[in-house]
C-alpha cells in the first residue's frame, strides 16, 4: 500500500498538501525544491495459472486460511510484463510456464496497483516458495472470482472460455 511521505525525500522539509495537477497532493513548498508526491500506481503482474487442466490458486502465508488467489508479483527494473509473469510462476510455484497470454489490465485501488494479468499454462510439479503455504485447483466450471483486481481478471478469462463464474465473498484484502 502506498503511504504518503511526511518529509521531502529531496530536501528534508516537511511536506504539505497543495493543489497541483488537478488534485490535492503532498508536496514540498520550498521554491528551490518543488518535489511532488504523485503517488502513481505500482505495476504488478498476475498469472491465471492453468496446470493439469485446472486453475491453480495459491494462498499467501499472511492470508487467512480460506483466501486463495492468483500468482502475482512486482515487475523488476527493466523487465517486461511477459517476462515478469513467467518469472513469478517459476519463482512461486517452481512450474515451467509455457507462454503468457494477455488477459487485461485492472486497477487495485486499495493497494494503489495496476495489475497486468495473463493466462499462463504451466507444466511440472508444484513446489511452493517461502511466500506461499498452500494451493488448490479449481475446474473452470467451479472457479469463482472475487470483487477485486485479480478476481476480475479471472472472471474475464473464464467468460472468454464460455463459463459464467459466480462471485465469492471471502476476499476482503487479496488482490
Polypeptide structure, described:
The protein has helices at 81-93, 149-160, and strands at 16-20, 23-27, 42-51, 54-60, 71-74, 96-97, 101-108, 113-123, 132-138. It has 175 residues and is of the alpha+beta class. It folds into 2 domains: 1-39, no CATH class; 42-160, Nucleoside Triphosphate Pyrophosphohydrolase (Alpha-Beta Complex).
Sheet with the most strands, sense and barrel status: 7 strands, mixed
The total of beta strands comes to 9
Low-confidence stretches: none
The total of helices stands at 2
**What is the N-to-C order of secondary-structure elements (H for helix, E for strand)?**
EEEEEHEEEEH
| Structural class designation | alpha+beta
Could you write a compact summary of the structure shown?
With 175 residues, this protein is an alpha+beta fold. It has helices spanning 81-93, 149-160, and strands at residues 16-20, 23-27, 42-51, 54-60, 71-74, 96-97, 101-108, 113-123, 132-138. The protein folds into 2 domains: 1-39, no CATH class; 42-160, Nucleoside Triphosphate Pyrophosphohydrolase, CATH 3.90.79.10.
List the helices and strands and how they pair.
Layout: E1 16-20, E2 23-27, E3 42-51, E4 54-60, E5 71-74, H1 81-93, E6 96-97, E7 101-108, E8 113-123, E9 132-138, H2 149-160
Parallel strand pairs: 3-8
Antiparallel strand pairs: 1-2, 3-4, 3-5, 4-9, 6-8, 7-8
